[in-house]
RNA sequence: GGGUCGUUAGCUCAGUCGGUAGAGCACCGGCCUUUUAAGCCGGGGGCCGCAGGUUCGAUUCCUGCACGACCCA
């Protein structure tokens, strides 16, 4: 039947309800138990037991079994489901006939009645009173396959969540992960802060920003690509341990691993360095894995991930040299010759350098996929790490790591650069790249530099992609599964 | 950006070697007082993603486009 006719049929029922003086969208309903609480309290009953105990439950009707003068309904709430039993004896003949005619799958109802078990042992509520709490006007998806079509699942999220418990479960686990992160950091003296999302200069990462406009100031502002620079300014201000969990915005492509707005954790700790950040990452993510999986390992897309500490630590250059079979210590022109000879493709726009971008490209194309168990990739080239301190014994590298899990970049961290003069030089180098056409090059932020000149304590900082972490911990193949409302074309 | 596959009823899916399409669930009507994927009888429901082309005839073949999935860059 065309959808419009199904909706029209329900609207007709709705009109008849209103005509009878029933408010199909009332204000509230006091329930005494959720479905799970009922099972908790009465789950031990023998078949065909009448308790004499009155309860009130509420939820969505997800199944209706009409048997003439008796009807069973499955009521789903946030905790699970409970069966409702309707008969003329308990509900009254007139009310029974009326509701059996006017209830539809998907309607939200409240039911007051006695707890009992059927002769097959199903815990049920025998309705003495039924209250319509919201009439549903649209048909539900198929009752045992649910809603499968991924496009509809992503475009009509409410429908997906009400039809597919697994979809809801991911959001519940996401909340658990966020709660675990906050607890972990709060217990260690970190202060949760909120920094600007509307920024005059988008800083703290290499990415293209979204632009917006403030009418009163008549000035363009950018949605942040990262909170990094503001959080470091709080270190200057003496906060010492700060973190922010919030949305970043990057004006880039959409894929199974990228959404234009995504949630990141950034944490900064004074008087430590990137070694400290590795320990923080291990502890924090281990706590999340234990909270979600109850063990330090879990399966992702058919393959186990072992989170046992300590995690592997491997220098980037070593990793890339081994994966590509090239001598990556060579200057860029010679490296390109070797890569060409070996048939390893390098996109044209990277060939002019800086060399760090080629190294990064090799990591992405040759090595990343195999980094399955958590792996810290260490010591990134200086020219692609403008906010990180130089490595102590290698001035062309920085004390920076990325954490890879299941072949995905999950975190990025540095020993934070706090020398204001060197930071200015690094920004100027980025400006030169921008002048050569690199739209992702970072920009000079004078407010940040001024605050650095006040003295920022040595510090370690880390950013963790919450969506990707949640994907891994919920065995989700696409970022869309872990977002309540992913952006679609 | 390139390749492969997909798009059929509200949902889940069949199918048409080119002759205007089926099932189950859902919906509507009937029977039914312990079902739980309830059952039985009957009924209605389709721009076969969109636009062109080939053809007497296209949902089916071809081209393009849109959207999606996967792979590659």
Characterize the quaternary organization of these chains: single chain
Radius of gyration: 29 Å
Report on the biggest sheet.
8 strands, mixed
Helix content: 25-40%
> Taking strands numbered 1, 2, ... along the chain, how are they ordered across the largest sheet?
6-10-11-20-19-18-15-14
Low-confidence stretches: none
Amount of beta strand = 25-35%
**What number is the mean pLDDT?**
94
Number of helices: 16
Global structural class: alpha+beta
Number-wise, the strands total 20
Instruction: Categorize the overall geometry.
Output: elongated
Structure description:
It is a single chain. The protein is α+β, with helices and mostly antiparallel strands and 489 residues long. It contains 16 helices and 20 strands. A hairpin with a 4-residue loop joins strand 1 and strand 2 (71-77). Helix 6 crosses helix 7. The longest helix has 23 residues, at 165-187. The radius of gyration is 29 Å and the shape is elongated. The mean pLDDT is 94. It binds one RNA strand of 73 nucleotides through residues 1-7, 9, 48, 63, 65-72, 74, 83, 85, 87-89, 104-105, 118-120, 122, 124, 138-152, 154, 163, 256, 345, 347, 365, 478, 488-489.
